Amino acid sequence: MVKIGIFDSGVGGLTVVREVKRLLPQVSVIYFGDTARTPYGIKSRKTLIRYAVEDARFLLSKGADIIIIACHSAASTASWELKARLDVPVFEVVSPSVVQACRLTRKGRIGVIGTRATVSSGVYPRLIPEERMGTEVFQQACPLLVPLVEEGWLDRRETRMIVKRYLRPLKLRQIDTLVLGCTHYPLLRRVIEEKAGRRIKIVDPSEEVAKSVKAYLEQERLLDEGRSAQEAGPPPVDMDRYFVSDLAPHTSQIVRNFMGRPVRLEEVLL
């Protein structure tokens, strides 16, 4: 059975877990949320690389066959370092969403919402024009959305007002495609789609990286010796493991909000 290791600076990467399990129910997942050292976005490049290497090696020690970097900050900074150091395939959330955004845009005007760290990194404005020449990228930092998601305020009036406010500058730029540049944001997708309007297509990096992993496993014929997901069936629930580096009192509830069910969390020290 293929074991997929997924790490993030916190619990936002669980949206990647959800998409992986939706597309690949027959694999097992090992998740690590580095909640003791979050947020990664304010760390130096050197520190980010060290954290990413430590996170990935922890997942490998638990048997991971594939690594997914679910953190946008780590993906934009440390993915090449991990690919050079590790002997397993490494996937990340940025590259596949760049490709999908360039496929979807009609006018070559793409918006990106994310944390201040992701916006400041400039990873999307750098990579998107490389994928599709002449494409314009407009970014909007949305610092209030992560705490709103973690509070479970997914459909509150206040949340809807804030989302509308954040999207307004991008709509004025007449974007036709919007990248959800944070793993928390898929939980707000319904509100974001409503406030963005029907003409703007949404790109969810959690979905795109899960599709990339599925395509790789199919190409390499690693899915239970070629059997389909339906034939193979899902693994036992206890085959999935969820680790965090700090287990605060409210963490379990936040994780439940992301996963839609209770999840057993194991605390580890790196």
What percent of residues adopt helix (DSSP H or I)?
Answer: 40-55%
**Uncertain spans, ≥5 residues at pLDDT below 50?**
225-230
The radius of gyration over CA amounts to 18 Å
Q: What is the CATH topology assignment of the largest domain? A: Rossmann fold
H/E element string?
EHEHEHEHEHHEHHEHEHHEHE
* Relative strand content: 15-25%
> How many distinct folded domains?
2
Outline, from the CA principal axes?
A: globular
Largest sheet: 6 strands, parallel
What structural category characterises the helix and strand content?
alpha/beta
**Overall pLDDT metric:** 92
CATH architecture of the largest domain: 3-Layer(aba) Sandwich
CATH class of the largest domain: Alpha Beta
Main sheet: which strands, in order across?
4-3-1-2-9-10
Cα(first) to Cα(last) distance is 26 Å
What is the count of DSSP helices, taking H or I runs of 4+ residues? 12
| β-strand number | 10
